[in-house]
Amino acid sequence: MSDMGITDPKRQPVESRSPAVVRQVVAFDFDGTLTVRDSFTAFLKWRAGPLGWALAMARLIPAALAYPAHRDRGRIKAAAVAAFLGGTGRKALDADAERFAEAVWSRFMRPDALACWDDWGRKGAHRVIVTASPEITVAPFARRLGAENLLGTHMAFDDTDRVTGAFTGPNCRGEEKMRRLRAAYGDDVLVLAAYGDTSGDTEMLAAAEQPGFRVFRKRP
């Protein structure tokens, strides 16, 4: 595999190889690991603007009040999607995500994480981003990185291709990260290395031959 550039916005992720071929992967969490902060919250705030942010946060009050009772991160994330993005067309969301990645890249990505990402690329590793954030908002970053694959939370769209405010599957954190890796690459997938920064990465780190917990600390 050729060395992937990390700053070229025109780079496209390499098509994932067949699960029958790929058995060894290097898995990176995205938010807080490759980036300095949560990307989805930052995207919603950037897209909404000050007034839109305040109005959407007000609509989230009932969901926030209910959270201590159920402690379901996926449920409150879906409520945020509905409040901030409900009714948005897929093409418009794709375009906004691309503009966001371009706007924040230089101040968002950890240089030591990018160096590690590039090092694995030079070794020919199959690098996969495994994130709780929606795939559609992380995809522009994955393209810039030249990621071989991206596994994230799946946002639901209706028959007119507009955001419904729900997800089509579980929030991609914790054990769900390993379930997604096994679904993509087979039950015998070998995680050569994994990098993460929260309890949501515990299972993925535990499965890795080389686990890296909060090993990236540099800021742009």
Overview of the molecule:
- This protein has 220 residues and is an alpha/beta fold.
- It has a single domain (24-213), classed as HAD superfamily/HAD-like (Rossmann fold), CATH 3.40.50.
- It is built from 8 helices and 7 strands, in the order E-H-H-H-H-H-E-H-E-E-E-H-E-H-E.
- The chain has helices at 39-59, 61-70, 73-85, 90-108, 111-122, 135-145, 175-185, 202-207, and strands at residues 24-28, 127-134, 149-153, 155-157, 163-167, 190-196, 208-213.
- The chain has a 5-stranded parallel β-sheet, with helices on both faces. A two-stranded antiparallel sheet has the order 4-5.
- It is globular and about 45 Å long.
- The two termini are 28 Å apart.
Structural descriptors:
220 residues, alpha/beta, Rossmann fold, 5-stranded parallel β-sheet, two-stranded antiparallel ribbon
CATH class: Alpha Beta
Lateral arrangement of strands in the main beta sheet: 3-2-1-6-7
Rounded mean pLDDT score:
91
CATH superfamily: HAD superfamily/HAD-like
Q: Roughly how many Å apart are the termini? A: 28 Å
For the CA atoms, what is the radius of gyration? 17 Å
Low-pLDDT residue intervals, each spanning 5 or more residues: 1-20
Going by CATH, the architecture would be 3-Layer(aba) Sandwich
Query: Per the principal axes of the C-alpha atoms, what is the gross shape?
Result: globular
Q: How many beta-strand elements?
A: 7
Total domains:
1
| Structure class | alpha/beta
CATH topology: Rossmann fold
Helix fraction by DSSP (H/I, runs of at least 4): 40-55%
Largest sheet entry: 5 strands, parallel
Order of helices and strands: EHHHHHEHEEEHEHE
Indicate the proportion of strand residues: 15-25%
